Amino acid sequence: MSVTLEDVKNNEEVEQLILTAQKQLDALGYTEHAHRHLSIVSKRAGEILRTLGYSEDRVRLAEIAGYMHDLGNAVNRNDHAHTGAILAYNILKEMGMDVKDRTEIMMAIGNHDESTGTAVSDISAAIILADKSDAHRSRVSKNNMTLFDKHDRVNYAVTEASLRINKEEKKIILDLTIDTKMCPVLDYFEIFMDRTMMSKYAAKYLGVWFEVVINDTNLL
Q1: pTM higher than 0.90 for the full model?
Q2: CATH no., domain 5-218
Q3: Average pLDDT over residues 96-117
Q4: Which of 20, 22, 78, 95 has the most CB atoms around it within 10 Å of its CB?
């Protein structure tokens, strides 16, 4: 059965896991990982594969994996990639998705976290690039800036963020605008270096180069 992204979005179990995951992350003081983030990751992952010439079926799977990739936060922040992969696999099985497709999604979700994962397929590479590109002030849930930690401050300093895919030049470019009054550009790399290197290797898996542009300056 060909399960669509809309089918997943309308699944009651998926929705409740998203809400529960965000409830836990709010309690822990983490940035937003709910509908806004999941929709962005889903859309960008699909755009990456579509622009690079992958089939619409691979695009569909990447979009679904992107939307489901953080479900494991409903269990625990630690090891969320692995628990989320199993949750997604079982939900998609109940929804009637073909076993080959749901194992591809499970593998991609299980490899999206920089502490334990890496690009092992086109779908996983797209998820990594899409996920790690979403730094933005709208992800910061704290209202009191005096309570910001480094992650909050860096995310809040990012006022614009886009991911551009240039098939002709074989480049994927993360273009950020950072308010340096909030934090210096160096703080971005201090916090996100592991994610940046993971994105670099994910792009390499797809046969393209990964670049980071901050305030109109190419820094990678």
Answers
A1: yes
A2: 1.10.3210
A3: 97
A4: 22
